[in-house]
Amino acid sequence: MNNLIEFFKKAFHIIVLAVLLIVSIVMLGKSLAFNDYSLSRVVQSIVGPIQKSGASMIHRFRLGPENEQLVKQNIELMRERDNMFIEKTDTMLTEMSKPDSTNTKRMRMYDYTYAHVIFRTTDRTFNYMIVDKGSNDGISRDMAVLSPEGVAGVITDVSPNFSTVRPILHPECRISAVVTPANQNGTVIWEGTDPHVANLEAIPQHSEINIGDSVFTNGFSNIFPKGLFIGTVKEVQVGNNASFLTIRVSLATKYTDIYTVYLVENLYKAELDTLKAHFKDE
Asked: Using one digit for the tens of pLDDT, what is the confidence trace for 132-162?
């Protein structure tokens, strides 16, 4: 016992220095806005392993083996939803087919995996999250990120073991959406204040939008499948521009308490992006 006390007396300053160093690195990671691409990768590589260790301890209490299995079962169910596929109809006639016959087949368009959030901010102008999977796990940029409740954000940067997520709570995150039952298309944008609310823009003033209407992804982008839940209409006003309504949307994802996320990959995104690159801006 005396030897242990003597050891702590001799190593006291080193122990304090190590603790302060770890705390300062973590605080640095929380204070940066990650606007600089190179800097964000450096900070992510330093802070990521530290935060992952802490998140792993929380994970043992919050998401044990049974819940982990439940997440995997949820993914299998999600993979079989209709919005994960596109239907292709072959109308070419053969000698064996009837003149009015068609052959329809389903082609998988999207696939799922999952990750755990090890870092997040919700009180900044530019908020970010970091998840514990990267390129070594098959994660790539522009994958959609979902919480168990709804749309959460987009993967923007990937390292071998970690990935950065740009959530809806970021002014540069724009999600193509449709509000039902009016079936009007617009864009969900966060105005930078309330982490629970975003704006739905570009909805014509003549649209019949009511409080409680649902907002989903419309599938117009190459990132999000159609029909993913974003939130519900909280407030409707006539905006300064008389042509459009000002619509406030209560976000489904609770960013202050998010741990497990689902990552969605468009299996044909590269092919679609190649075609879109040839569009002329006229």
From this structure: 999 999 999 999 999 999 999 999 999 999 9
**CB neighbours of 189 closer than 8 A, spacing ≥ 6?**
171, 173, 174, 198, 199, 201
The CA-atom distances, in angstroms, between 114 and each of 21, 66, 151 are 32, 15, 14
Q: Taking the model in full, what pTM does it have?
A: 0.74
Q: Are 130 and 116 in contact (CB under 8 A)?
A: no
Name which CATH class applies to 2-61+112-167+258-272: mainly beta
Average pLDDT taken over every residue of the chain: 82
Q: Over the stretch 96-123, which tens digit does the pLDDT of each residue have? A: 445 555 567 889 999 999 999 999 999 9
The per-residue pLDDT for range 66-90, each reduced to its tens digit, is: 577 788 888 988 888 888 998 877 6
Alpha helix (H) residue ranges in the chain: 2-31, 37-62, 65-79, 269-276
Q: By C-alpha distance, which of 223, 226, 121, 53 is closest to 215?
A: 226
Class of domain 174-257: mainly beta
Domain ranges of the chain: 2-61+112-167+258-272, 174-257
Burial class (CB in 10 A: 0-12, 13-18, 19+), 99: exposed
